[in-house]
Amino acid sequence: VVDSEDLSLNVSREMLQEDRTLSQIESQLVKQTLKALKELGETDEAKYAAFWAEFGKVFKEGISLDWKNKDAIADLCRFESMKTEAGKIISLKQYVAAMPEEQKEIYYVTGLGRRAVEQSPHLEAFRKKGYDVLFFIDPIDEWVAKSLFEYEKKRLKSVAHGDIDLGEDKDKPAEEDVSSAVLAVKKALGDRVKDVRISHRLTDSVSVLVAQEGDPGANFERIMKMMDKEAPAAKRILELNAGHAIVKNLAAMAKKDPDSAKVAEWSELLFDQALLAEGVVEDPAKLVRRIQALLTEVSAAAAQA
Description:
- The protein is of the alpha/beta class.
- It has 15 helices and nine strands.
- The protein has helices at about 15-20, 20-45, 45-60, 60-65, 70-75, 90-100, 115, 125-130, 140-145, 170-175, 180-190, 220-225, 245-255, 260-275, 285-305; strands spanning about 80, 90, 105-110, 135, 150, 155-160, 195-200, 205-210, 235-240.
- A hairpin with a 2-residue loop joins strand 5 and strand 6.
- Helix 2 (about 20-45) runs parallel beside helix 5 (about 70-75), helix 11 crosses helix 13 (about 245-255) and helix 11 crosses helix 14 (about 260-275).
- The mean pLDDT is about 90.
């Protein structure tokens, strides 16, 4: 309830749109509401978590709609993360406070749910390094990521976009040893990918697809399709793990005969498994046939041994 002696007794659409007093009331109501919610979040985390569970998805729309109060709304946002238990949420301020001194950016990954993102190969290097990654797992979080460029002077960075530099020395000899594999895969896949390169985010997986900085990611494309809207399809970059045995073996084969059918088949498998990790397979039947052929070859070699 707002008590004001300055409001006009005559109400019309034009008056409601242009009345200076109403604009001041709106500004003060928003300011006081944000202040009250901030105090609640700082004094009673359990009660605030209940509020956030009910209204958080809608509340985050303010990041992209209310630029004037964007920073205040960002303070109120809560997210799950790689280091939190399922269902537990943290603020951006808590994330920044827990960052190691050498970490320079706020990392996040987008997806359709915690189970879909927590096993993502994009997280491997961050898990090894000990860096936490925020889980942007509500559809609206895609627009949060596009609107909230930084927080407390730290840039928000998607782990599935662009190149990743975690400050570790790159193994140049290992990368040079598998350069023939990179060239062979690039030739085999042609224009289905934007590029093929050595990955600095993989530690266990053999390959992964990443989007170029500024391009829409796979999750955004999925959300747009769910909304029956067209999203600009962007080719992605295939990254290979230089330390993985499969890539090393592929490099050895490519050095002997870069144009062999086996090299092309392995290249297709690397691409397919990267798509599978994203939850997308262009031709499931063809993937099954490739896996069966590879298993047949491996089992025959094992039987002969």
